[in-house]
Input
Amino acid sequence: MSKIAFLFPGQGAQKAGMGQDFYEKFPSAKEIFDQASQWLSLDMKELCFKKNERLDLTEYTQAALVTTCLAMEKVVEEYGLHPDVTAGLSLGEYCAIAVSGGMSVKDAITTVRKRGILMEQAVPAGEGSMAAVLGLGAWEIESAIKDTKAEIANYNCPGQIVITGPKAAVEEASLKLKEAGARRVLPLAVSGPFHSSLLQNAGKELAKELENVEFFALQIPYVTNVTAECVTDISQTKELLAKQISSSVRWQQSVEKMLAEGVDTFVEIGPGKTLAGFMRKIAPDVKTYNIQKVEDLDQIAEILGSR
Output
């Protein structure tokens, strides 16, 4: 029996125009965008559909991306496609939880708006940074940076891991990694040292916000970034989301967990093809699809026999 996972991208996947064709063609998607505008007192059409500088600012990016992905996913389910498990990269985990039935669309969108603001304010601009490390294994990177204050932010896929921390520590670690044989170490254009211990206070503040969120029994499991394990008990979710801000994103391990659980079809929902790209390196023989336009959905629904 085929098992399907829905995957949701994280910050960095955003781009102007995302979700616009879903908004224009499907009332259910339009409703989510319009409701998000009311909930956040932001013009989500202006933010998501037109080129603007705010789309790349963390405090706006997160709400924009989650709104877009959830609006698109709503239509995907209307086409008859349903997941057996969900997962999201960092920010995308909020989409995964909402789609798994654990929280409302409203709470997912309003909470990530607060999350984005907390992350933006956590560390003064310029004091932290992140860098992508290409061409080294996880244990090689862990060994090379162990005497620095840099940390691993993301285990994305074989040959691509992201480090994070104070700017000077990331620069020191980058030199050590090049000496250790990294093919490239690329500084990332981000506004802070995300998924580092420097964001622990932001996690504590987020935990307070999460006390006001109503969580529901999960209809299907989701895989959490923090442990790369399936979550079936929603009572774990508040603590995991608070921890997630400052802990490593174990994306490769999350995919490997889903594979071990028998998932053989992965559908990335949202702008860009980042997660599909990771899948080609983690499990190149597994069926992986990407939905970022309505035409993608038409093709995939036909392939998977749901319409």
Q: What stands out?
A: Strands lie at 4-8, 85-88, 128-134, 151-157, 160-166, 184-187, 222-223, 230-231, 265-269, 287-291. The chain has 13 helices and ten strands. The CA atoms of residues 14 and 56 lie 8 Å apart.
